[in-house]
Amino acid sequence: MDRQSLYQKLMTSGERDLVKEQLRAQLAECGWRDQVRAKIREAIERDGIDKVSVESLVHQIVPAAQELVPDRVRQDLCQRVQAALGPAAGGAK
After folding, report:
1. What is the pLDDT of residues 33-51, one digit of tens each?
2. Which family does it belong to (predicted)?
3. Which of 2, 8, 18, 87 has its CA 20 to 30 A from that of 93?
C-alpha cells in the first residue's frame, strides 16, 4: 500500500484527527512548544525584527523543531499510526 493510500485510510477512519490531537497534547506536555517559541525569539533577537521574514524563520526553525521532538513522542506516534492502520502499515515508508 502506498503512502497516499495509507494517508487516505487514516483520513476516512477518523484516526488522523485523533492521532494529531494526541500528538499536540504530548508536545505541549513535554515542553516542545515552549522550546520552539524560545528558538523563534532567539532568531528574532539575533537577526532583528526588521530583517526576519516568515520564510527565513520557517527555514531556520523547522529543522530545529524536528530535532527537539523527544524520541518517546516519535515512538508513540509511530505506534499509534501503525495501530490505526493495522496490517496495511506493514511496509510503508
Report:
1. 999 999 999 999 999 999 9
2. Belongs to the ENY2 family.
3. 18
Model pTM above 0.85? no
Residue 5 has pLDDT above 90, yes or no: no
Query: How would you class 27 by CB atoms within 10 Å of its CB: exposed for 0-12, middle for 13-18, buried for 19 or more?
Result: buried
What number of other Cβ atoms are within 10 A of residue 14's Cβ? Answer: 10
Question: In 1-93, where do the E strands start and end?
Answer: none
* Residue spans of alpha helices (H) in the chain: 3-13, 15-29, 32-47, 54-68, 71-85
Dihedral of alpha carbons 5, 8, 10, 16, sign: positive
Contact 68, 36 (CB under 8 A): yes
Q: Which amino acid is at 85?
A: L
Query: Are residues 84 and 13 in contact, defined by beta-carbon separation less than 8 angstroms?
Result: yes
Q: What is the pLDDT of residue 89?
A: 60
